[in-house]
Amino acid sequence: MAAEGSNGGSGRGRSCFVLGASGETGRVLLRELLARQLFARVTLIGRRWLSLGEETGAAVEQVVVDFERLSEHNAAFRGHDVGFCCLGTTRAKAGVDGFIRVDRDYVGQAAELARAGGCKHFLLQSSRGANQHSRFLYLRVKGEVENLVQAVGFDRCTILRPAVLLCKRQESRPMEWIARQFLGVVAWVFPTAYSVPVEMVARAMVASVLQPGKGKVEVLENGDIHKLGKAVSQQGT
What we know:
Elements: E1 15-19, H1 24-36, E2 41-46, H2 54-59, E3 60-64, E4 82-85, H3 91-116, E5 121-125, H4 137-152, E6 156-160, E7 164-166, H5 174-189, E8 195-197, H6 198-210, E9 217-220, H7 222-235
Parallel strand pairs: 1-2, 1-4, 2-3, 4-5, 5-6, 6-9, 7-8
């Protein structure tokens, strides 16, 4: 079987890990990976054990780590060909320091451990407008973590910059819910401009693994995510 990379390949028979599998995009990504049987081994790396269905649980390994002492868990990142990172929190939930620590520091350190463990292709869910020089904390931190991940030196690095994510959150965020209802209507008129369903982001990640790379670093903006997500949906399993 051809290996994924410059000459393409399906990814079957290889191993991947997922950071942030408990989040909105991560849950959908896991479902996509298992449905398409892209990898022989899928490892979820997180701060807590996730309750999975019987079929899912049989196909997935879970490793619980302390992100404050991540360097002690280097074994969790060893032996994976591909790494998916959907890890993130919010300023409202974790505070300024907590947000920076999770979205930048944890991700940056995980990328370093993944590269040292043999990971060739790292995919990072970032954000539209990410810029290390932005005056907005969220966009600045996203820009900083993009730079950190690129500097690690993966054979291939894919950065996805989705706009506002459309999803049904498990946790209650009233104001965000109102905004998503509005954007859901706008999406009918401007489907790729201001928002993107989490399913589309997950499928774009899958599509990126399936297709040949376009250089060491590839940045997928919101329109690119829609295009790739639709393409892999049409291909089926």
